[in-house]
Amino acid sequence: MPSRIAFSLCLVVCFFLGNFSHADTVIEYLLSEQDTPLNGGQLQPVWVKEGKLLIKHAGGSRNTDVLFNQALDSLIIINHKNRTFVPLNEEKIGRIAQQTAEMAPVVRGLNEQLRKLSPKQRAKWEEMLGDFPLGEITQDKEGAPSSIKTVGDKIVNGFACQQMDVFTGDAKTAELCLADRSTLNLSGEDFATIRSLLSLTERMVSKAGSLASQFGIKVPQIAIRNLAGVPIEMKDFSNENKGHMTLKRIASETITAESLQVPAGYRAEELTLWR
C-alpha cells in the first residue's frame, strides 16, 4: 500500500510539474539587406506563448511591435513612440482595400492634375493632403507568384530546412527555407500559433499588400499556408533593398503573460487609409 501511495503521489507531482514548468518559445531572427553581413543586421525577437505571438521591432522599426492572438485571428499594431495601438484583422483590411479600390479612379485623376501644377502649387496641395497615401492607392496590385520550386535540403545555423525558390514569371522574387516542428523542437501549440500567423498575414497581403506594409507587415506573396514548416531563412528579391531574414537562435524560456499585452495607458486608434 505505501508503494502504491508513493507511486500515485509521484504521478500527481509529475503531472503538475509538467504543466507549470512548460516553457515558452523565444525565436530571434536577424534582419539585414542582402549585401550587408549578417553580423551587421538588426535583431528581431519573436515571443510565443499560449496562442499569442509578439514580434518585437516589426519591419525593422524599434518603435513598432505586432501582437497576434490566435483565438481571435487578429493582430494589434503597437506604436511605442506614440503610445498607441491599432487592432487589425482580415475584415478591416478587406474593407479598407475596397474603399481604396473605389477611390483609385478619383485619386489617379487628382495625381494627373497635380503633375500639371508648378512645384510651389504642388507642394501646397501635398501639404494639405498630409499623409494621404496617393502613391499606395494608385499602385497596381502585384500578382501572385507563378511558381514555387523546391531546391533541396539546406542547413541554416545548425537547423535543417527545405529550400524553395519563388518565381514570378521567369524572375526569382524570393528564396525561403522551411524547417519542421521537430527540427525546431517546438511544442504543438506554439507551432500552430506560428502557422496561424503566417496564414493570416498571407491572406491580408493578398487583399492589400501595400496597405498592410504601412503597419510593418511585409511578406512576399507566397501561398505559405500550403507549405509545411516555419521559415527560418527568407530572401526577398522583389525590391531594391533585397531584404534577408535568417534564424539566429530558438530557445525555450519563460515569458510572462504581461509581456504579451498592450502596455497600460496606450490609446486605441482605428485603421484608416492614412496614418
Give the topology.
Layout: H1 2-20, E1 24-33, E2 42-49, E3 52-55, E4 64-69, E5 74-79, E6 84-88, H2 90-115, H3 119-129, H4 134-138, E7 147-156, E8 159-168, E9 171-179, H5 181-184, H6 188-213, E10 230-236, E11 243-253, E12 267-268
Parallel strand pairs: 6-12
Antiparallel strand pairs: 1-2, 1-11, 2-3, 3-4, 4-5, 5-6, 7-8, 8-9, 9-10, 10-11
Helix pairs in contact: 2-6
> What class do helices, strands and sheet pairing give?
alpha+beta
Shape: globular
CA-CA gap between termini: 70 Å
- Average pLDDT number: 77
Number of helices: 6
| Main CATH class | Mainly Beta
Give the ordered list of helices and strands: HEEEEEEHHHEEEHHEEE
What is the CATH architecture descriptor? Clam
Helix content: 25-40%
CATH topology: outer membrane lipoprotein receptor (LolB), chain A
**Using DSSP, what is the number of strands?**
12
Radius of gyration: 22 Å
What does this molecule look like?
With 275 residues, the chain is α+β, with helices and mostly antiparallel strands. The chain is built from six helices and twelve strands. It has helices spanning 2-20, 90-115, 119-129, 134-138, 181-184, 188-213; strands at residues 24-33, 42-49, 52-55, 64-69, 74-79, 84-88, 147-156, 159-168, 171-179, 230-236, 243-253, 267-268. Strand 5 (74-79) and strand 6 form a beta hairpin.
Task: Provide keyphrases for this structure.
alpha+beta, 275 residues, outer membrane lipoprotein receptor (LolB), chain A, disordered N terminus
Quick recap of the structure?
The protein is α+β, with helices and mostly antiparallel strands and 275 residues long. It has helices at 2-20, 90-115, 119-129, 134-138, 181-184, 188-213, and strands at residues 24-33, 42-49, 52-55, 64-69, 74-79, 84-88, 147-156, 159-168, 171-179, 230-236, 243-253, 267-268.
